[in-house]
Amino acid sequence: MALYNRQAVKDNCGFGLMAHLEGEASHKLVRTAIASLARMAHRGG
């Protein structure tokens, strides 16, 4: 059995980066990041 399985490969192009420009911690930033991840759930299987 090979380590590479062509049938298991899925395209997944998506990237998210959330940051406060002054470096402050923020619950709103965390909520936004989690919402962004939820919207990308369809990516990559």
Characterise this structure.
The protein has 45 residues and is mainly α. The protein has a domain at 21-45. 29% of the residues lie in helices and 0% in strands. It has one helix and no strands. The longest helix is centred in the C-terminal third of the chain and has 13 residues, at 27-39. It starts with 26 loop residues before the first helix and ends in a 6-residue tail after the last helix. The mean pLDDT is 80.
Please compute the radius of gyration using only Cα atoms.
16 Å
Based on secondary structure, the structural category is mainly alpha
What is the share of helical residues? 25-40%
Give the CA-based shape: elongated
Number of strands: 0
Q: Overall mean pLDDT score?
A: 80
Number of helices: 1
Tell me the span between the first and last alpha carbons. Answer: 23 Å
Reading the helices and strands in chain order gives: H
Tell me the major beta sheet: none
Strand percentage lies at under 5%
Stretches with pLDDT under 50, minimum 5 residues = none
